[in-house]
Amino acid sequence: MKINRFVFVLIFFNLIFFNSYSQISGCTDPQAINYVQNATVNDGSCFYKSTNYYPETFISPISSTVNETSGLIFFRGALWTHNDSGGKPEIYKIDTITGDVVQIIRINNATNVDWEDITQDSDFIYIGDFGNNFGDRDDLKVYKISKTQIPQTGNAQVEASVINFSYSDQKNFAEFKNNNNFDCEAFFALNDSLYLFTKDWDDHKTRMYVLPANAGTYQINPVYTYNVNGLITGADINAEKNQITLVGYYSYESFIWLMFDFKGNDFFSGNKRRIDFSDMAFVQTEGIAYYDNRNVFMSCENSSCPQSLFKINTGIWTNINNTGISETKNVDNYDVKIIPNPVKDSFKIVFNNFNAKKIKLEIRDNHWRKLYHKKYHLLKNKENILSFNGLNYKPGMYFLKIKTKNKIIVKKLIIINH
């Protein structure tokens, strides 16, 4: 009996010993530069080559009622959004075929001081009135609406409960327009909490806070800080697949951050990958929403293009079984280059294998005033070159806007001293 017990203990400790040594930490994503093929535990160390992508334009424009669309959710088979600061205290159901507003829900006891994002859980919709461009607000809040109040069709008026909050680390409430770290435009709901991501104008990082999803007044603490190198304007989570998408922009160019393969609610413990949309310059991307396990809708407010919806297949990058580089390419080829850039005298716009015959080309200044516009016919899938005289423009930053039948491309053009 003692021998059997000794053998059992010996086997038990051997299993623990060998199992601990069989776990190899490292980067487990085959698309990463530092992929470790025999790694069994993702240690969050993956890093990637710069990735540029052009999202599919889904609907452009959507209804002018939501020309300042800010947040986005996918609820009851449709997209819902709202306008930001100064808009009506309403959320709008968008037809995903026409882009029309087909239902309006008004929150009677709410004011739209600066609504910046919208999120949901299984029972409630949450609207974040926490935009804080000046960094001086002391009335930050989230409105909470029961989904049972929203009819299947037809407009309605509802009441919301209110979640008030403040940041424990904010000591200075002086006005610093677009130069503070206490603006917020992004959050999502998970279990009994709301996860907020700040829009840090000063250091271009984001801080994550956790806010209880129940009515009350709270002071919340920063949980994690991450250098996103930009301004975060929207967030959503795919809890089933442990994936998060953050959307934002920096220096007039849009991007998303994908966080995936993380542990529990330690969202920054897994892979963190940035996808740039450098051909969407001056497009103010605001909202993001998953509508299945791979795809997200992204919205932009009226900017270099009208208020629009885009679609992105995030599974290209978050599905770790994808190992082919070709999978990251767009289906449509829209390769446009400005040569040289910056420009001293003359420059060329080169279209390589451009998948469009007709384009409308504009040059705008940094106040978005139109300085040049013309329609061109291109040879499809051939090299096309357009020549311009840079001496016609004063030194500064300009924007080249190219519109095809189903896409709008905006690129930065820099003119230097002649």
What does this molecule look like?
The chain is mainly β and 418 residues long. The protein has two domains: 56-319, Tachylectin-2, Chain A (5 Propeller), CATH 2.115.10; 335-415, Immunoglobulin-like (Sandwich), CATH 2.60.40. Helices cover 6% and strands 45% of the residues. It has two helices and 31 strands. The chain has helices at 2-22, 315-318, and strands at 25-26, 41-42, 56-59, 69-75, 78-83, 90-94, 101-107, 117-120, 124-129, 141-146, 156-158, 161-167, 183-190, 193-199, 206-212, 216-220, 222-226, 231-238, 243-250, 253-260, 271-277, 285-290, 295-300, 308-313, 335-339, 346-352, 358-365, 370-377, 384-389, 396-403, 408-415. Strands 4-5-6-7-11 form a five-stranded mixed beta sheet, with no helix packed on it. Strand 23 (295-300) and strand 24 form a beta hairpin. The longest helix is centred in the first third of the chain and has 21 residues, at 2-22. The termini are far apart.
